[in-house]
Amino acid sequence: MTVSIIRLRQVLSNYFNESELQDIAFDLGVDYENLPGRAKGDKARELIAYLERRGRISELEQKCNQLRPNAFRDLEVDTLGVVQSIEPIPISASEPAIERYRDVFTHYEIGLINLLAQISQDHPRYGEGLAYQHRLQENLAQTRRLGDTEIRRSERAEIVEQLNELSLSTLGISFNRICTKRTA
Description:
The structure is a single chain. The protein is mainly alpha-helical. It has two domains: 2-78, Death Domain, Fas, CATH 1.10.533; 86-183, no CATH class. The chain has helices spanning 2-15, 18-27, 40-53, 57-67, 71-78, 81-84, 106-118, 126-146, 150-171, 175-179; strands spanning 94-96, 181-183. Strands 1-2 form a two-stranded antiparallel ribbon. Helix 1 (2-15) crosses helix 5 and helix 8 packs antiparallel against helix 9. The radius of gyration is 16 Å and the shape is globular. The model is unreliable at 76-102 (pLDDT under 50).
């Protein structure tokens, strides 16, 4: 499910303009103007989070497939091959990572996948984890596309701190530690 949500956000952000995103929200019965955020990427992320909380992600995926049938396939080939091949890492059988990552932020993406894989979807704070995931993914995408800035670093540090708190309270281990673990 996590990879599907990442893919949905990327499809909405990369394959639809803001007017089309408004139409999608309307078709799904969501008031686009009441979604938090100003930019298209913010609205896409919040639309996904809104539908995820209501168990309606499959409706959004179907709508995207209907309007842009090749988007998921193109995106899978272009940008997600690395992330899709990553299996959740059991924390108990982990050692500090010495691995070379695709870039300096990939460890965050791996950590997000592992964190959400270990928190049950029925857990009351799972939706909170998804919201942090969306915020961090958006930050990383902007950083990769436009370069890192003090504002992005500050925002990223804040999100990671929130993920640390969530991870510590639900799993008893920090998000930073999850990000630096790998299978022995």
